[in-house]
Amino acid sequence: MKVAVVGLGIAGLSICARLALAGHDVAGFEQFDPLHVSGASHGDTRIMRLTPGEAEIYTTLARRAAPMWRDWEGFAGQPLIEWTGGLMAGPRGSPFVAQCQRFSQKPAGLLRGDAIHPLTRGYIAMPYEWDVFRQDDCGVIGADATRAFLLRQTPRWGAKLHHNAKIEAPIEGLTLKINGQSKSFEAIIVAAGAWARRLLPEFAGRLEARRRVVGYFRTDEPRLLPLMCVDNDVGLYGMSAPRGLYKLGLHAVGGAVEPEHIVPPNEEDAALLSEQARLHLPRHDPTPVRMALCHYTVTPDENFLIAPSRFHPRVLLFSACSGHGFKYAPIYGQFAEEWLNEKPSVELEAFSILKRARTTNQFGEHAS
Questions:
Q1: 294, 212 contact by CB (below 8 A)
Q2: How far apart are CA 260 and CA 209, in angstroms?
Q3: Residues 238, 246: contact at Cβ < 8 Å?
Q4: Cα 137 from chain centre
Q5: Residue 19 and residue 32: Cα distance in Å, rounded?
Q6: What is the 3-state secondary structure (H, E, C) of the chain?
Q7: 2-50+143-207+301-358 domain in CATH 3.50.50.60?
């Protein structure tokens, strides 16, 4: 089948790779250069958790993705994930921490927050009365290394990747106007993040781009530290980063934006990040050595949205909501292949609009 994939972030690249291996005639289109820093797939690191606390379906997906990550590492000839362990933390009784514990394949008792400081030799601290669940099945994904691998490997599997390709909006059928020239396909998959709102405006009310800033913090004695996901009012998360730095981000801070008009990191961002560094990274300098900008594309319930266009059943929106989507990357191509083959699956149903219409809480609790 002749398939176009619009958007070559981590989801689009995964889809191109899988469909090309399955024998489809795949063309991928990206409006920016390779390894660009727009959107949500760029950067040095992303969190890997095999027991996400967002909902049970994501734990199932993460464990399905794990052996496929190992396959990708084999093709890449290098590790793409560094396993560091992780600390899931929050105020006593946190639903997020409780779900991480409940979904775990190796359930263990909760730690009290004051155990974390000695456990990490003073590098990470939590309030003494908090609940903390320690997970071994967590690590850090090399995000740019993964993208670079897929950009090299996917054409070898047969997909044709086109960069600096501007797609005219809106998409209302199986013909794309690409840099002013029309080209027709048998199916189109739109994995364009925030730009999907313009390409498929029927979904604009279901997708929102949000500004996010991360900061990098230095310590005099760097070491590999566990990642952290914190159920607090700012949705703190953190992970070890290259050059001995530790990266902090605030999942719950940042308003809606248009992707072309995002305010660069500023002093207010630095102050918010520094406050969290003082609380949780006692051996790090609380002033970030640098900050980086990205944006999430999320649905109102922060779950994935995979849905055909009402204008044509062979046009698919594929939104793997930024922020927690990178860890599942190898299985996105499977979802796309199931859709192309009209093969029902639990995931395609769960992430559809129809499922959302029937129930508003099919996924359970979500992390901050």
A1: yes
A2: 11
A3: yes
A4: 17
A5: 22
A6: CEEEEECCCHHHHHHHHHHHHCCCEEEEECCCCCCCCCCCCCCCEEEEECCCCCCHHHHHHHHHHHHHHHHHHHHHCCCCEEECCEEEEECCCCHHHHHHHHHCCCCCCCEEHHHHHHHCCCCCCCCCCCEEEEECCEEEEEHHHHHHHHHHHHHHCCCEEECCCCECCCCCCCEEEECCEEEECCEEEECCHHHHHHHCHHHHHHCEEEEEEEEEECECCCCCCCEEEECCCCCEEEEECHHHCEEEEECCCCCECECCECCCCCHHHHHHHHHHHHHHCCCECCCCCEEEEEEEEECCCCCCEEEECCCCCCEEEEECCCCCCHHHHHHHHHHHHHHHCCCCCHHHHHCCHHHHHHCCCCCCCCCC
A7: yes
Query: Is 62:50 a contact under the CB 8 Å cutoff?
Result: yes
Architecture of domain 86-136+208-298: 2-Layer Sandwich (3.30)
The dihedrals phi and psi of 76, each to the nearest 5 degrees, come to -75, -25
The total number of residues shown for the chain amounts to 368
Q: Report the distance separating Cα 155 and Cα 264, nearest Å.
A: 34
pLDDT tens track of the chain, all 368 residues? 999 999 999 999 999 999 999 999 999 999 999 999 988 899 999 999 999 988 999 999 999 999 999 999 999 999 999 999 999 999 999 999 999 999 998 878 899 999 999 999 999 999 999 999 999 999 999 999 999 999 999 999 999 999 999 999 999 999 999 999 999 999 999 999 999 999 999 999 999 999 999 999 999 999 999 999 999 999 999 999 999 999 999 999 988 888 888 899 999 999 999 999 999 999 999 999 999 998 889 998 889 999 999 989 999 999 998 668 999 999 999 999 999 999 989 999 999 987 766 644 443 333 32
Q: Are 140 and 246 in contact (CB under 8 A)?
A: no
Domain extent listing, the chain:
2-50+143-207+301-358, 86-136+208-298
